[in-house]
Amino acid sequence: MTGYEALRNHTAWIDLGTRAEIRVTGEDRARLLHAMSTNHVQGLAPSHGLYAFFLNDKGRILADACIYNLGDSFLLDTEPELGEKLREHLERYIIADDANLEDETGHWSIIGLEGPQSLANAATLAIPIPEQPYSIVQWKQGFVARVASASRTGIRIFTPAGQTAAFPGIPQATAKEARIVRIENGIPRYGEEITERYLVQETQILHAIHSNKGCYLGQEIVERVRSRGQVHRVLAPVRIKTNTPPEAGTKLTVDGNNVAEIASAVYSPALGEVAALAYVRTEAAHAKPEMIVAGSEPPIPAYVS
Predict the structure, then answer these.
(1) What are the residue ranges spanned by the domains of the chain?
(2) What is the DSSP string of 176-241?
(3) Tens digits of residue pLDDT in 61-89
(4) pTM flag (> 0.90)
(5) Is 232-305 assigned to CATH 2.40.30.110?
(6) What is the DSSP letter of 80?
(7) Of 1, 190, 216, 233, which residue is most buried, by most CB within 10 angstroms?
């Protein structure tokens, strides 16, 4: 069984050791992260976690992170290319706060155990399973988080660097295989489908926002978009009837009018066609008309799945 097949239908492990990690300490650590992110960090209990965006003053998304409350500190778990950017962004706003940021990238071995049967396999291997999404449980010298990057189901295992856990009988999914399954599942990633071009509501990841938490950087724009309902495009899964993935930025049209722009696309062996994530005009995302890949001849159909 390939890693792709295992990740899609059973269980596979994914090497996530290049992800960036930032430890936040100090008495004002919760206040700082609460004021800088879109979610409710101030009330986050120990051993719990959440997912949040970090915005600029224009409401554009600068970064995202899973935030875990380790008790005496918070750990920000983010994409490999975001570690330095996010740390520098937070440091600019530490003025009189008792808060310290430490780069722990490379200090952890990080493995994702993901797929429809991943929790059952984890139990078989005596790996503890956190009960709630983004919550954590201590395990060995590290911890396990209830979060996945490519599948809808999975856990993320953190152990000190050099102490990688073993998963007998479970195949590894490569980064390429994990990307295909991620896009098949309609799961966006910062740096590919989510960038500084976009507003929070356009991503449709609304569990990253706490609507009653009070002031935070970028909140005015988030609230304005929510109250006025001015979301002109949304990120949606798309299927394209071809074997060749169009490049990011390719437009999709209806009656010659652009209604969508592809953010990422892969050929799906399981579907026998291209799976994509695209920013689609809101009305088209709801109506789901047949679209055409711009410039294709003969016309290549596409549709919101």
Answers:
(1) 232-305
(2) HHHHHHHHHTT---BTTTB-TT-BHHHHT-GGG--TTS---TTHHHHHHHHHHT---EEEEEEEES
(3) 999 999 999 999 999 999 999 999 999 99
(4) yes
(5) yes
(6) G
(7) 216
